[in-house]
Amino acid sequence: MTYDDTNLAFENSERAGRGEAPLGDLLRAAAERAVPLVAATDDSALGAPTPCAEYDVRDLLNHLFAVVVQFQALAAKREADFSATPDRLAEPDWRESFAAETGRLVEAWAAPGAEEGTSGAMGLPARTVGSMALLDLTVHAWDLARATGREFEPHPEVVAGLMDEVEGMAPMARKMNVFGDPVELPAGASVFERLLATTGRDPRVRPAA
Fold it and tell me: What is the DSSP letter of 150?
């Protein structure tokens, strides 16, 4: 599956009128920005620090790999296994594999019924679970760009589709140490900057070299 010529028709979605574009569309839009960024990451950058203190670039990419694979199962209402994170970057074609797995993630959440009911061991609404994958594909793409000295701007529909979900999941995410404490930003911060701040990231700070 390719991402360079996808025509997103959010305005034609019934849910888009209510600010709820289908997750398949949102994930496709996120993938359009994230997959090329991953593909252009040089091996020499894999040891660089990232805004996630526990991850260098290699760890971050392996985590993101696990997300795009395991959340395919969650879309189908199957159990996911995050007990181990294989080193997918040891494979010579890991960039192509990441693109392929991300394409499968998009297809899984675009499938009929994927957003309905509950999913995962915690029995969360499926839309919330899918939004977690969308958040990782967006925020970790920003982490990767920041760690490697590149720019990243997500699709505005993705950010709009995430804000309510992220604010709703934030208290639980902080208790689970998934999000850090919210960061205060000056007036005039963009919606994406506010989204990053809600997850505990400061969009003004770059990781130490």
Answer: -
Q: What letter does residue 160 receive in the DSSP assignment?
A: H
What pairs with residue 118 in β-bridges?
A: 125
**Inter-residue contact 137 to 34 (CB < 8 Å):** yes
pLDDT of residue 82 exceeding 80: yes
Q: Token match 């020499």: residue? A: 44
What long-range pairs does 196-205 form, CB within 8 A, spacing at least 24?
196/139, 196/142, 198/166, 198/167, 198/170, 199/135, 199/139, 199/166, 199/170, 199/173, 200/174, 201/51, 201/139, 201/142, 201/143, 205/51
Do the Cβ atoms of 142 and 152 come closer than 8 Å?
yes
**Which contacts qualify for 15-18: CB closer than 8 Å, 24 or more apart?**
16/157
- Between CA 33 and CA 102 the distance in angstroms is 12
pLDDT digits 0-9 by tens, 96-116? 999 999 999 999 999 999 999
CA distance 43 to 203: 25
pLDDT band at 62 (very low <50, low <70, confident <90, very high): very high
With b for 16 or more beta-carbon neighbours within 10 A and e for fewer, the 11-27 pattern comes to eeeeebeeebbbbbbbb
How far is it, in rounded angstroms, from Cα 202 to Cα 146? 11
CA 5 to chain centre: 20
